[in-house]
């Protein structure tokens, strides 16, 4: 049996995946190897996923962003699903989770894996429920069958809800929002119906064997995460976290990589506490958080409420952020929602990296600032996180080409533009020194920046040679009115 990334790292071997990751992160391959060997970082890279451009998730590397996509019974054509994948990769998703619950799951999953340059994650419990017909009809044999099949297909990481135990369920009785994780609610119902322990917990060692054979990474699901800030940091959440720490160490003992999923709703002043506690309980295994949402009052704007928490979590050491779109809690996201959600989370991830002083992370900010001060509109657009959106907003009021040379925009106009006034004052009266900006002075050279790829423009830097052009996607399925995106596992 071929070695897993963590097994190779422990033996001192630097794999091809580690070399590629080192290149993308601008780090030494030996540092990457040591982080993987210690379980402080994961490289989700199923050996059956041929189209993969490897990446790394760990608190010592650039903060990553995941996008959820998926189908339902009403939205199951391949064209739509490939468009979702395209949208996610184009706007900067580092990984994609397929949370589909409709039909044609195998066909859609295999198509994603054939073309996706980013790691693909799944929640095999969803397929098990669909095949069983109801949560209570699930069997351990069925769970293992689905998990093994998805591993053979090439899935890079799977959310496994093995941490919710029968003894945890009474701890949720006083909550405002109960159990909000799909997987958690399914496992809770199964345990209540059968009067037995969580079947995923019961066969955890067998799951480890499957994962080790194909090098699948665990994403240990937080089934009892809070669904409202009132329920954050309660006994139920932290009791499951203790179990996740035990499961982390059991996976490591089987040479399997592990990351741990984190809470969805946490007030701002307790976000860092959640990250620090997970890092302690799970011995530094990468923390993968949904948000967290820091307030519950803004349906329709939860990409903002959660990005605030996400930036705070990244600053505290979270390794990957699962995006939330404006449609969270309200409906199935469309392409624009996916775009907005990824923009919010790329901002949160980058802000966390700047705050943590990741090598070269601020160079991107400095380059944009220099272009802005010099009124180099075209360069400012080129460097923007979303160039099309920046250009669109500028051109909404000043669309003509001559305004690309103008020393003002429509916000302040000619007379009240502070940067123009400042420049003129420095040039005219001699009382103020000129600022060192621009290519001829001390301008920031992003080409030589030590920043990781995700902290340099443009976003969406994965090798997408195997990702079909959007116009070719229609060959894979029927026309559909379905919209890209899917709600989170919340």
Automatic annotation (TrEMBL):
It comes from Natronobacterium lacisalsi AJ5. Binds 1 [4Fe-4S] cluster per subunit. The cluster is coordinated with 3 cysteines and an exchangeable S-adenosyl-L-methionine. It is an enzyme of class 4 (lyase). Substrate binds at residues 68, 97, 126, 161, 181-183, 222-225, 261, 288. Zn(2+) binds at residues 265, 329. Its cofactor is [4Fe-4S] cluster. Residues 431-444 have a biased composition (Acidic residues). Keywords: 4Fe-4S, Iron, Iron-sulfur, Lyase, Metal-binding, S-adenosyl-L-methionine, Thiamine biosynthesis, Zinc. Pfam families: ThiC_Rad_SAM (PF01964). This is Phosphomethylpyrimidine synthase. The gene is thiC. InterPro entries: ThiC, ThiC/Bza_core_dom, ThiC/BzaA/B. Belongs to the ThiC family. Its EC number is 4.1.99.17. [4Fe-4S] cluster binds at residues 409, 412, 417. HAMAP family: ThiC (MF_00089). GO terms for biological process: thiamine biosynthetic process; thiamine diphosphate biosynthetic process. Catalyzes the synthesis of the hydroxymethylpyrimidine phosphate (HMP-P) moiety of thiamine from aminoimidazole ribotide (AIR) in a radical S-adenosyl-L-methionine (SAM)-dependent reaction. Pathway: Cofactor biosynthesis; thiamine diphosphate biosynthesis. GO terms for molecular function: 4 iron, 4 sulfur cluster binding; phosphomethylpyrimidine synthase activity; zinc ion binding.
């Amino acid at each position: 049996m071929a070695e897993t990334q963590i097994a190779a790292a422990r033996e001192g071997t630097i794999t091809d995946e580690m070399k590629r990751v080192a290149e993308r992160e601008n780090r030494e391959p030996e540092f990457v190897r040591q982080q993987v060997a210690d379980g402080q970082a994961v490289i989700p890279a199923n050996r059956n996923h041929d189209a993969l451009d490897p990446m790394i998730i760990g608190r010592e590397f650039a903060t990553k962003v995941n996008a959820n996509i998926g189908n339902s019974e009403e939205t199951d054509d391949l064209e739509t699903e490939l468009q979702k994948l395209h949208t996610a990769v184009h706007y900067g998703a580092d990984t994609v989770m397929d949370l589909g619950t409709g039909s044609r799951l195998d066909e859609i999953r295999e198509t994603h894996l054939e073309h996706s340059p980013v790691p693909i994650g799944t929640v095999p419990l969803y397929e098990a429920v669909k095949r069983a017909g109801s949560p209570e009809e699930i069997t351990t044999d069925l769970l293992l069958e689905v998990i093994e099949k998805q591993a053979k297909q090439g899935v890079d990481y799977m959310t496994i809800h093995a941490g919710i135990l029968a003894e945890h369920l009474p701890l949720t009785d006083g909550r405002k929002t109960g159990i909000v994780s799909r997987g958690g609610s399914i496992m809770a119902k199964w345990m209540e119906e059968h009067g037995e322990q969580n079947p995923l917990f019961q066969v955890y060692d067998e799951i480890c064997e499957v994962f080790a054979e194909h090098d699948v990474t665990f994403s240990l699901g937080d089934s009892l995460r809070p669904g409202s800030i009132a329920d954050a940091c309660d006994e139920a959440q932290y009791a499951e976290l203790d179990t996740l720490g035990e499961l982390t160490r059991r996976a490591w003992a089987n040479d399997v990589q592990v990351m741990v999923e984190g809470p969805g709703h946490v007030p701002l002043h307790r976000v860092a506490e959640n990250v620090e506690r997970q890092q302690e309980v799970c011995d530094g295994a990468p923390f993968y958080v949904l948000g967290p949402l820091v307030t519950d009052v803004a349906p329709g704007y939860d990409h903002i409420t959660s990005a605030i928490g996400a930036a705070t979590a990244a600053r505290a050491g979270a390794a990957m952020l699962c995006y939330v779109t404006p449609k969270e809690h309200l409906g199935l996201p469309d392409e624009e929602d996916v775009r907005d959600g990824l923009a919010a989370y790329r901002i949160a991830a980058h802000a966390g990296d700047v705050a943590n002083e990741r090598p070269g992370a601020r160079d991107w900010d400095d380059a944009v600032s220099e272009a802005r001060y010099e009124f180099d509109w075209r360069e400012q657009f080129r460097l923007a996180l979303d160039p099309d959106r920046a250009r669109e907003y500028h051109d909404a009021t000043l669309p003509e080409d001559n305004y690309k040379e103008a020393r003002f925009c429509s916000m302040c106009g000619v007379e009240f533009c502070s940067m123009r006034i400042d420049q003129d004052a420095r040039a005219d009266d001699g009382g103020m020194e000129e600022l060192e900006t621009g290519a001829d002075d001390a301008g920031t050279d992003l080409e030589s920046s030590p920043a990781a790829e995700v902290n340099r423009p443009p976003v969406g830097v994965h090798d997408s040679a195997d990702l079909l052009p959007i116009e070719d996607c229609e060959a894979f399925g029927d026309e559909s009115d379905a919209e890209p995106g899917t709600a989170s596992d919340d």
